Structures
1.
Amino acid sequence: MKNILVPVEAHSAIDSVLQTAVLASRRFSSYIEGTPLGPDLPDLVAFDMPVSWSVADQNTWKDMADEAHQRFEQAMRDAGLPEAGADKTATSFGWTGESAFGESQIGAYARIFDCTILGRPGTERGDARMATAETVLFESGKPIILAPPKTPEKMGETIVIAWNNSVETARASSMAMPLLKQASKVIVMTVEEFRSDGPAGDLYADMLCRHGVNAEFVIRSASHRNSGEAILRGAEALGGDLLIKGAYTQSRLRQMFFGGATSHIMNYAEIPVLMTS
């Protein structure tokens, strides 16, 4: 996790996003790169915003980028991080982009970073956009970390893996290995009512121990909750400060109509969540 991308936009969790990036950078002596984020033009049209404004008023996009830059740089300097210099291995920050990037551009640009830190989409007006999280999930090939609305005090000391035997969660856990190796405790948690075919969590915990990870296995009952709520309640009860989850182990279309763990977690998690598709 040496290279972290942070798209910056005025939404309800942006302060938490910036501080979550700082927490990650201190664990890995990372480089944090900020970049301005704005909606793609089709999103503006879909929400009936004036197309003439989005196309013609280029100064508005430049102002948006300047404001994002100032907010990002102030947060990095307040945290005591230096601006990037000749030493490419040192903890540092930098900025790219003179005008706001759309989601599609962010999704592509994120491919060269180890992870992208975004705001948890949520359900309220002013929350980060779901479109941003989903675009980076499916277009970058790299993990995302969703920061909760309230700034976390720590991240990665006690990690909970929501193990449902799926390929998506196996991929997410593999990409999170640098975090797992640094954690004080890793808990492989299975909700017994919600798992697919595949190796059980106790076997996976044993394999993690071979990497030097302090891993243990627990199994929980959903107790009539939906899968996403059961995962969040379980992670909270176990003292987790980071949840690892494979995204959309059911199809996105099915989750749109019937709900699912990924959608629930993206809307309601109160701790950082690392996801891959």
Note: The CA atoms of residues 73 and 95 lie 8 Å apart.
2.
Amino acid sequence: MTGPLVTAAAYLLGSIPFGYLIVRWRKGIDVRTTGSGATGATNVMRNLGMAGFLATFALDFGKGLGAVLLASRMTGGDPGWVAASAVAAIAGHIFPVWLGFRGGKGVATGVGVFLGLAPIPMALVLVIFAALVAAFRYISLGSIVAAAAFPLLFYAFDHPPAALVAGSAGAAVLVIASHHANVRRLLNGTESKVARRG
């Protein structure tokens, strides 16, 4: 029963709505009623600035990394249960049981998950993300492409067990699917861009 319990724990860990709690604590409002309606770091930044972004990103990142490390330790590194826990942590962030299954988009939690699975491919994914945001100024585009690239780089560099490849692909699909509204805005040219410095 260890595997199912660890996967359930990963979901519950992922579902802790840090962004929601931070904005509720600092401003007394539901962050989901503002901006993009998500609980993630980018929407928190719209309410609390860079400090709010950094705090939320770090905590959401920690959820993903912690879920993978916990699963690896508790199941003896079993690829299937590590993969299941990786997906569960991101699902928990996007569909948190505490908030009526309305959460964030899974990017920061996904970064933690992917780092826990494969540090070198994750570093390459961050380079891809940064290059795309610098070139096109769309955070959503960088997030979507980076998420899609991770399973491919993971397979190419680490040749992991099939279960881990499948888990990383499932995690990436969740992150990409959570950006469906951003994809529509990208296609019709109404997606918000990051302002250039200066």
Note: The mean pLDDT is 95.
3.
Amino acid sequence: MRVLMFGWEFPPHIAGGLGTACYGMTRGLARNGVEVTFVMPKASGDEDKRFVDVVNASDVETVFGKVDSDAEDIIDKMSFIHIDSNLVPYLSPEDYVTYHDEFVKTGEKRWETGDVWSQRYTFSGKYGANLMEEVARYAMVAAQVAKNLEGQFDVIHAHDWLTYFAGIAAKRVSGKPLVVHMHATEYDRSGENINTQTYAIERAGMHAADRVIAVSNLTRNIVIEKYGVPADKVVTVHNAVRFAEKESEAPERGVSDKIVTFLGRITFQKGPDYFVEAAAKVLKRVPNVRFVMAGSGDMMNHIIRRVARLGIADRFHFTGFLRGADVHRMFQLSDVYVMPSVSEPFGISPLEAMKSNVPVIISKQSGVAEVLDYAVKVDYWDVDAMADAIYGLITYPALSQMFAKKGLEEVTSLKWNNAAAKIKSVYEDVIAEQTRINR
């Protein structure tokens, strides 16, 4: 079985859990006999390609012209994209149609003679101010990739809203079934104050798909209730964690204090402010504790100011964004890991902490809470309960050791090979459905 997969990031260059999940998933699919061609906006060349063929969308030349009827089909099939854009110097989807119409209307010679005009887009591959523009361009390139790989894939798999239009474009060009993966909804990121444009893309992608994979039952319910996707079309496949082939030795600690860690984006969704409030309560009871906030985000300045106002700046450390080996070292240095997310579709980081023998505290409002028994679960807003849980784990060694030991045993069973097997069965179902329809 061969899959054309569209993602936005891939290790070692990642901005969050999406890239980590894609990496573990593609490795698991390879071990389940599935060949994956992974397309991303901007590849760096140092991605691990042992289990996946990585295609850099920035290297793909999108061809337009009357070379054959398929070129016209691409134009027709891209007309579904309507995104406000002020692209300079790139063509937006709207500009693309305008150029086509103008060439046809004026009868310009180079169009009529069948000559080709082409465009190569250079993507930043980042979550910046031009994100919507890149999403639109990525969809155009996706259509070309699908055309170039005609006959070389059986199903299309698109990850999160950033790639949904790309998946739809590839489906319309190739006719192959589309599976979209919902790692986080706009409701998770923004609460009820959603970005309507992002919501519209998410909704369009899920309704155009043949199947939607949700990373938890929590996310599945949101997809059904908030987006109106039929329940029988949405399948839950929980994420997993990848164990390194060779575990590195634990780094030497320079302090004797207990270390409590928050690792993630410093944004509303991740609940960093609740972590700070709980830290202040713990420090009133136990002074020899250090709290680490590893990450970056739009709430960073707010959090720093709050730490200063609470008078705990000397016990609080900000590392900035960590990746790869630095994440692993941070977990090895930690005595407790806390994930106080307001809304977390799944949450891979607690699994990574648990595999490092670190007891974890997670919010009940997280998808990973569905698969873990040996994690302390609290409501994200209950900073008293969070502080009590931290206090218990750093004060009572037997309690901490029990959660660490049982947690490691539990997380060992959550392998990407098993998750990938479920994803493969989703592929088989949509391919079989399409075969029945085409008979």
Note: The first strand starts at residue 2 and ends at 6.
4.
Amino acid sequence: MKREIINKLKSIVGKDQLTTAPEELLCYSYDGTGREYQPEAVVFPVNTCEITAIMQLANATPFPVVPRGAGSGMTGGALPVAGGVVIALSRFNRILEIDEANQVAVVEPGVITGDFRKTLEKRGLYYPPDPASLKFCTMGGNVAECAGGPSAVKYGVTRDYVLGLEVVLPDGRVIQTGVRTAKGVVGYDLTRLFIGSEGTLGIITKITVRLIPHPSAKKTFLILCNSIKQATSLVAEILTRHRPCTLEYMDRTAIQIVREKLPFTLAENTQALLLLEVDGDAPSVAIQVDALQEFLTAKRDLLSVMQAEKADEIDALWAARRAVSPAAFNLKPHKISEDVVVPRSRIPELVFFVENLATKNALTIFTFGHAGDGNIHVNIMLDKNEPQEVNRAAIATKALFEQVIKLGGTLSGEHGIGITKAAYLPLELDAASLEVMRGIKKFFDPNNILNPGKIFPAERHAKKTIDKITDGRL
């Protein structure tokens, strides 16, 4: 990048808030995918005016700009694939307002999601979205990817709580979207357009969210099953009779890699488990627990139903659940992590297909995730230094996606498309829909400077990639 541009950026944010040092650039070159693309500079703006000036400069020059939160994304959404400048939003870390009377809060995008939830809890308020990375992921990244989490089965995902946004457009203009009221139907719903847009349409600088009262009681259960089929079939049965706030699933491999973290000793023949919680006020939770225990007692073929009574037991269960993804690297040095979604009633079909897929392609593949809303995380383990294994993993990924679409599902429930799924987008979206989406991107960002290379594959490249996978050449 030309020295002239670097100097102009320094004049905007201050010389101490820009870096081009190679060792520091490296820290902003990767995300949860493990892939690396080094930027040419990283800037650390502190207010909307600075971002406006950066975008005006980038649009006029032009050069690529990539907004970045904590870099915990799993599809490459924050990777500077075209070089350029990364805008690190770590200094946008303030909770600007908590309006208890109207149950509304305003935060900056760099606020850590878990910290925000803890602050609200002290005031008896609740922001339900709870991605696995909540201890370090940020609110801006959650909005950009429309993050979910275990609580989505009852409470929904990020888009269900965002009322409005402040956004800097690629040309530097600032817009306010949405409302801070319970209702509002004035004009197009631009707020929803930006949620899940992966930083390709604008840079979010303020987020207005709705809140709800914090549940005063919660009970946690661990259900051990003697087969994956039993566990996945039980999910649909539970949801037709009960309304848990979380209903998580783990197969035998997922259990094995975090077994030592679990607070209970599991039966040796445990093939799958469900982690289930109910919440609400104390009287309603008591009613829910009685109904649930009666239902589960009638299922005499279950291995065990255990209730976590102590806080440290509950914490240990969730620590184990959230450790599944990082612990997977004990199996193989690399993984392809997919977050597909199917109708809940078809989870058994999906899991059965994945088991056969693993056998057919001689791969280690395991499943876990948010069974309550059909969002199953499929992890394909591999060693990228083994070309044949890489080939088989690519073939398995395409087959997985094709099966998910056949089952009436979608390619991503919460991770987004980024770069890792871009080539497969035509499997789910028809040509007309893709054309409309490309048109929206071009309208907002005619110079394609904001997070270029994400979501939409180059058409010839996408076809070439899928053809190679089909032929077994990738």
Note: The longest helix spans residues 387-406.
